[in-house]
Amino acid sequence: MLFKISMSNIRKSMKDYAIYFFTLIIGVAVFYIFNAIESQTAFLNMNEDRREMIRFLTTAISGVSVFVAIVLGLLIVYASRFLMKRRNKEFALYMMLGMSKWKISALLLCETVIIGAGSLFVGLLIGVGLSQIMSAVVANLFEADMSNYRFTVSASAIVKTVLYFGIMYVVVIIRSGFVISRCRLITLMNSGKRSEKITMKNTWVCMIVFILSAVVLSYAYYMVGWNQWNLNTDKIITAIIMGAVATFFIFWSVAGMLLRVIMSVKGVYHKGLNSFTFRQISSKVNTTVASMTVICLMLFLTICTLSTAFIIRNSMNEQIEKNFPIDFFADYGKTETIDGDEYPLYSSIDDEYSQKGLDIRDEFSEYHNFHVYYDREFTLSIFIGDAINDLNGYFESFESAGKSMEPIMKLSDYNALMKLYGKKTIELKENEYALCASFEPMVDIYDRLFSDKHEITLFGNTLANHSHHTIKGYIAPKIQPINTGMFIVPDSIIDEAKEDEGLLVAADVFAGNYKSSDKKETEKIEKEVLEKWKNVMGNIMGEENVGYSYYTNTRIEAANSAVGVSALVTFLGLYIGFVFLVSCGAILALKELSESVDSMPRYTMLRKLGVEEKDITKSIFLQTGIFFLLPLLLACLHSYFGMRLGKFGLDMVVVGSFTKPMFFTAAVVVLIYGGYFLLTFFGSKSIVKEQK
C-alpha cells in the first residue's frame, strides 16, 4: 500500500522532483566518472611512469571524493527540506485522515528509496557511458595508445558511488523522520498562509555598510591584484577573510537598499508589476544573505578552479615543445668550502667519464659542451643596484640571493647552443654584453635598467648593454620559465680573464640529441644514457672540503612531469568545479521554487485583479534572473581579481593565453548554471499556475 501511494505521489509531484532528480543524476554520474578513471584506463597502452601518474591521480581523486560527498550530502539534505515544505498540506491531510506520523515517515522512506534507487540507476548508466569518453580524454592527455581499449564498467567505482550516496540517503531519511515527528497538524495546515515579512532596514545604515564593504573589498582586490610581490601566506589569508566578510555585508546592505532605491524612482517602481516584482526580490535576498554569500564564494572558487585547470592543461603541452627542444641536458659542478663559504672549482664532465673509460658523446648525434663562469666581484645586487630593494621586499630569500655571483657564458657557446635549440643567434661588439632570462619578474626589472644605457664591469672590462631589452629565453631547458638570467659576453673577455682577476668556473654543461629515429628507440637510449650518468656521477670519490653537484633533465622526463601536473590539476579542477557549480545552481533553484510555493496565493490575487498571464510570466522571469544573477556578478568580479593573482603565480609556471581557457570556463558556467536558471524559471512558472 505504501509503495503504491509513494509511486502515485512521485508521479503527481514529478515537476517538484525534477530539479532534485536532475541534481542527483548529475552528482552520481560525475562521482562515478572520476572514480572510474583507473579502471577505464587499465587497457590503455602507456609506459610505467605514466601508469604511476594515473595511480597517483586516482588516489588524489579518492581523497577529494570524500569532500565532494560531503558537499553533495549537504545539497541533498537542503533539497529534501524544499520537498518537505512543498508537501506540508499533503501531510496535514494524511494526519486528518488518521495516518500516524510513523506511517508518514515510512511513506517518505519509501519515496526516498525509490527516488534514490532511480537516480543511482540513471546516474550510473549515464556515468558509465560518459566514462568511455573520459578514457579518450585521458588517452589524449597521456598520449596513450587506445588500440587495445575495450568497453569497461568499474565495479569499485559503482560500489563507492552506491555506498557514499546510500549514506547520504540514510541521513535524509533520518532527518525527514525527525521533522515529521515534531510536526503539528495546525502548523502544517497554516504553512501556506505564512509569508516572509520584509524587514525595512535603515537606508542610511545600509548605505554606510555598503560603502565600507566596498572599500574593504577594494583593498582586498588591490592586495591580490596589484601588490602580489608583497604577499605572503598570512596576507593572502587576510585578503580572503576580508573578501568573504565584505561579500556578506554587500549582500546584507543591498538587501536593505534595493527596495528603497527602486521605490525612490517612481517611474520605474510604479510601472507594470515592478512594485510586486521588486518586493518579491527584496524579500528573497533579505532572507538569503548567508546563502547568497556562500553561493557567490563557491561560484568564485568554481570559476577560478576551472579557469586554472584549462590554462594549465593548454599551456603545459605547448611548453614541452617550446621550452624543451632537445633530448638531454646536464650540468656538473664542484665546490670547495673555505671558512664556511663555498667557492666553485674547475669541473669537467669529460674528465669524470674518461676516468671510467666512457665517453658521454657515444649516444648523441649532435651536442654542445661548454662551461659557465663567475666573476667574484659581480653579483646580482651590484648589477641591479637600487632595484635590489624591490626584490628584497618581494622575496625574503632575495636578501641572500642578491649576494650571489651571476652566471656568465661565452658568446660562441651561446650561439652554438641556440643553433642546437633551433633559436636565433646574436652578435656582440667587443665592449657589449647581453642578458638572457625568462622569469617575468626579473625580466621586468632588467628591462627597466636597460631603458637607459646600463654598464657593467666584468674581469676589469667595462661593457654596455647590447640592446634595451632582455633576450627572452633560457640556457637550461625547463617546462617553467624560471631562468633568472645568464650574461653573455664576447669570448675574448673570458679567454683573457685570469683566476686572480675573479674568474671562476661555475659548472660544466652538456646538451644534445640522441641517435634515435623513433619514440621507442629514444626511450631505450635514454635509459642507457641516464644509467651511465648515474654510474659516473654517483661514484665520484670525495675529497676533503670538496663538494659535487650534478643535474640532469630530459625531454621525456619533462613531458611526463608536465602531463602529471596537467592531469592532476585538470581532473581535480573539473571534479570540484562541476560539483560546486551544480551545488550553486541547485541551491538557488530550490530556494526560488520554495519561494514560488509560498507566493502562490499572491499570484492568484494578481489574476483576480486582472493582471495578464504574460505580465506574471515576465515578473517570474525577472525575479529568477536577478536572483541568479546577483551572486554570479559579484563572483565574476571576485574572479577577475583572483585570476590576476592566479596569472601572477601561473606566469612563473606556465606560459600561454588566458583568453581561450576563460571562454571555456564561461561556456561551462553558462551551460550548467544557465541550465538551472531555465529549469527554475519553468518550474516556478508551472507552480504559480496551479491555482490559476
Automatic annotation (TrEMBL):
The lineage of its organism: Bacteria, Bacillati, Bacillota, Clostridia, Eubacteriales. It comes from the Bacteria. The keyword Transmembrane helix applies. The chain crosses the membrane at residues 17-37, 57-83, 104-137, 157-181, 202-224, 236-259, 289-312, 563-590, 620-641, 661-682. Belongs to the ABC-4 integral membrane protein family. GO terms for biological process: transmembrane transport. InterPro entries: ABC-4_Integral_Memb_Prot (IPR052536), ABC3_permease_C (IPR003838), ABC_permease_BceB-typ (IPR027022). Its main location: membrane. It comes from Ruminococcus flavefaciens. It is found in: Cell membrane. This is Putative ABC transport system permease protein.
